[in-house]
């Protein structure tokens, strides 16, 4: 899906994903001191707004101007400030100083574009900063619920770690993996609770 497709999807009076953060974000940042944060592919801005409410200086980046505008509105409704950027995360140039936290949640890209987005994510990460990524795991296609049905847009923790290793070499930085693997997510449906299978990777830049 390109920006126009996402614009069409987000062009509703209500939030598609509601206003709450992704369930994995709060526990993954609970041990971090609020600083600067960027949510890459922020969609309607729910994660960036939640971070701002928790004291982070938050930025949301997405190539959907409709989604970004909804994020800006959500921030205003919650009484917080955030910076909003309309840009493609595969080519966006982050600030030189980087961020203390880079969040990437459910970015649906093919392998080549995903690698480019991971270069952006690492480039956006300041020394000492943390990168948290959650995406639809490849196993979800056959054993989980929902998510993209095209395997080209699914991933594994190994895929992401390989992408990050390539980014380390290209950008001459050093990352330490703190967490990587599959996680389960409960999804409420008309037929009851179902289980989705995601990938979660958390790394820290040490140099």
Automatic annotation (TrEMBL):
The keyword Transferase applies. SUPFAM superfamilies: S-adenosyl-L-methionine-dependent methyltransferases (SSF53335). This is Unannotated protein. PANTHER family: PUTATIVE (AFU_ORTHOLOGUE AFUA_2G14390)-RELATED, TRANS-ACONITATE 2-METHYLTRANSFERASE-RELATED. GO terms for molecular function: transferase activity. InterPro entries: Methyltransf_25 (IPR041698), SAM-dependent_MTases_sf (IPR029063). Keywords: Transferase. Residues 38-129 form the Methyltransferase domain. It comes from freshwater metagenome. The keyword Signal does not apply.
